[in-house]
Amino acid sequence: MKKFVLALVFGFIALCINAQDKARMADFAAQLDTLFGTARYAPTDNQRYLASEQAVQLMAEALNTEGSMSWKWNFGDKVSVLTSPDKKVRLITWPVLRDNGEWECFGFIQYLNAATGKVEFAELNDKSDELINREETIVDPSNWYGAVYQEIIQTSNDGKTYYTLLGYNGVDNITQRKVIEPVWFKPSTGKPQFGQALFRRERNLRRVVLEYSNSVMVNLRFEEQFVREVERKRVKVKGSKNRYRTVEVVHEHKEKMIMFDEVAPQVEGMEGLYQYYVPSGEEMAYAFVGGKWELRRGAEGRLDDKRLNKPFEPIEKQAPSYSTR
């Protein structure tokens, strides 16, 4: 009887703590929503940056609260909140736009640390202007290649789980960029790292960066598409014993891929001057094969076929479409 009473008492305390945490998280959410609105829409740089700094401090407090990993944040189009399908990784990212058109990104990564068994988080510090060899460098949260993430892709191979992020950065009035970037966790410490050699291309890239003119639109989406593969095979000519001809056999299957527009300089000799980069007209894709993202040129993600996905929806530069999954 005594044990039963104690169990009831502890159960009641747990319910009260849970209710208190929920009330506290709801209070955080309301305050943060106001701050994020100011950081997005305030008329001056100072007001926007002050609000973002306050939001960083308050969000750190919120993420330190028991149960925050499962809290459903919803800040509309002001902040991107992405949670991996296995619920072990969450990215919260947002931009601050300066009066001169420049972007700076802010955010947090929250994750279940496999080494400690605890939910932890880290603030993301945008160092994209300082990063050298941006496609080949591994960085930690303090030297983050800033982006507002719009998709988190979870894949697996040989018992390992991979997380790949699709992000956007408005950069400035001259260029903008989209990023394909893996995030992984050090086995020894469980701490997050951004950039991993998962891309099969001309060389093993650790992230893919598409930087291009401010005046054009470039698509980057994770889509399920019909893939058409052409197999060339030799068949015997009907009625002949030793004559053969080559025929093409078309195979179709569904596959989820990262679809994107390849970008290239508009004018020859402008390599590296990204304000002159535009879509080349070739659509590309990365398919996850054997633990790597394998490049496929000439992807046909927009074929006029009723079975295929609808055309990509454009994303406005200053009003990206955020997910709150």
Q: What tags apply to this protein structure?
A:
five-stranded antiparallel sheet, disordered C terminus, alpha+beta, 325 residues, disordered N terminus, globular
List the helices and strands and how they pair.
Elements: H1 2-41, H2 45-63, E1 80-83, E2 89-97, E3 103-112, E4 119-125, E5 148-157, E6 160-169, E7 175-185, E8 192-194, E9 199-200, E10 208-213, E11 220-236, E12 244-265, E13 277-289, E14 292-296
Parallel strand pairs: 9-14
Antiparallel strand pairs: 1-2, 2-3, 3-4, 5-6, 6-7, 7-8, 7-10, 11-12, 12-13, 13-14
Helix pairs in contact: 1-2
Walk me through what this model shows:
18% of the residues lie in helices and 40% in strands. With 325 residues, the chain is α+β, with helices and mostly antiparallel strands. The chain has a domain at 1-71. The strands form three sheets. Strands 5, 6, 7, 8 and 10 form a five-stranded antiparallel sheet that branches. Strands 9-14-13-12-11 form a five-stranded mixed sheet, with no helix packed on it. A four-stranded antiparallel sheet has the order 1-2-3-4, covered by helices on one side. Helix 1 (2-41) runs antiparallel to helix 2 (45-63). It starts with a helix and ends in a 29-residue tail after the last strand.
Short description:
This protein is α+β, with helices and mostly antiparallel strands and 325 residues long. The chain has helices at 2-41, 45-63, and strands at residues 80-83, 89-97, 103-112, 119-125, 148-157, 160-169, 175-185, 192-194, 199-200, 208-213, 220-236, 244-265, 277-289, 292-296.
